[in-house]
């Protein structure tokens, strides 16, 4: 309703609606209220704008507004889901009511980013977990961990279309024990190249490659 009012739309104008689960609907504005808008919903169009490969981010929580930025840009680049990771080196620690508020905020950021870029499937932002908690409930599947260690594989060598979970650390990176646990759980170490990217940039670089 706020968007329609800001755009000064009037009865008879056509807008596009989506429910975040795929496809979109044509709709016609029928009444403009002070704080609400009524529309007549028309036909559903099965339009899809998803990336060819589903990438699920398990991303170390970054400080200040950097996590907001990561959620926003990841949504634009087609991320399938985001699980904030409470890593050993995470500056921001979340629990209780604060964690619930942050989760709702990040999900709102994802919705707004989907609206802006024309994406009609909203990625789910899951509750923050530790790596140990995630591994305890994770289902099998392809897994990559962004790593600066020796023997990593170049991301450019990873091909295919199967869904993949990408693990990345916070500003200080994953701890040696976290990376060891990830490797033991089947994560393949991958590198983005010779430059060290920021914690909020590296996952986006992966998404850019996978959505190309």
Question: Could you describe the 3D structure shown?
Answer:
There is one protein chain. The protein is of the alpha/beta class and 212 residues long. Helices cover 30% and strands 24% of the residues. The chain is elongated.
**Mean of residue pLDDT values:** 93
Through-space gap between termini: 34 Å
* Biggest sheet record: 7 strands, parallel
Range of helix content: 25-40%
Question: Which regions have little confidence, pLDDT < 50, spanning 5+ residues?
Answer: none
Shape category = elongated
Estimated structural class = alpha/beta
Radius of gyration: 19 Å
Strand order of the largest sheet: 6-5-4-9-7-10-8
Helix/strand order: HEEEEHEHEHEEEHEH
Q: Please report which band the strand proportion falls in: under 5%, 5-15%, 15-25%, 25-35%, 35-45% or over 45%.
A: 15-25%
Count of helix runs: 6
Give the number of DSSP strands.
Answer: 10
